[in-house]
Design goal:
2 domains; 7 helices; alpha+beta; elongated; 192 residues; 5-stranded antiparallel β-sheet
């Protein structure tokens, strides 16, 4: 299993735990008892996932079959979480030049949520999916991977405003175009 798949399964586990917490935090005893079977089923399937992900005994078909057999009402949701994480994963095949730096997974989530907030009317935009990848450490420019309805991939530098106003966007057709036309020109060796 590669790192991309491992991260997708960890995201699936994370969302499964959130669902367990939601089901178990019902205000009335009646709702808790009603949800007990779902809680137990989700727990049974997910509890060994972290150990299996780091062993050579991981069986992808077994995990999905267990999910289908025990919690069929969640299979579409979990498949979507898994597929979204697979498509969101990105690994740079070159070194970033200062002031650009890669983002942690948590920072990726924060920056992506902020861009969606600032693009309130994003239905009118060409893109419908964004994933933060890197940022400049000296300003609020963030590099995003963007996809349109046809799943075509682009790269967008957004200058986040952090006040819900529309950010400026610069669009690149490929990561290589961004690297040459933006990163190398704004990098450490370039005077501002």
């Amino acid at each position: 299993m590669n790192e991309k798949e491992r991260r997708a399964y960890l995201k699936l586990l994370h969302y499964g735990l959130i669902e367990i917490r939601h089901l178990s935090s019902q205000k009335s005893l009646f709702h808790f008892i009603k949800n007990r079977k779902k809680i137990n089923n989700l727990s049974d399937v997910l509890h060994n996932l972290p150990i299996l992900l780091h062993s050579d005994r991981f069986d992808e078909k077994l995990i999905w079959n267990q999910l289908i057999d025990t919690v069929p009402e969640y299979i579409e949701y979990f498949r979507e979480v898994y597929e979204d994480e697979l498509s969101a994963y990105f690994e740079f095949n070159f070194a970033l030049v200062e002031p650009w730096c890669e983002l942690s997974e948590e920072a990726r989530d924060v920056m992506t949520r902020e861009l969606y907030k600032e693009l309130k009317d994003r239905d009118s935009l060409f893109f419908n999916k964004f994933t933060a990848l890197a940022r400049r450490i000296d300003n609020d420019d963030v590099l995003f991977r963007a996809k349109n309805q046809d799943e075509d991939e682009f790269f967008v530098v957004a200058h986040l405003t952090w006040n819900n106003t529309l950010p400026s966007l610069h669009i690149y057709k490929s990561i290589e175009e961004w690297k040459i036309d933006h990163m190398m020109k704004t990098g450490k060796s370039t005077k501002y």
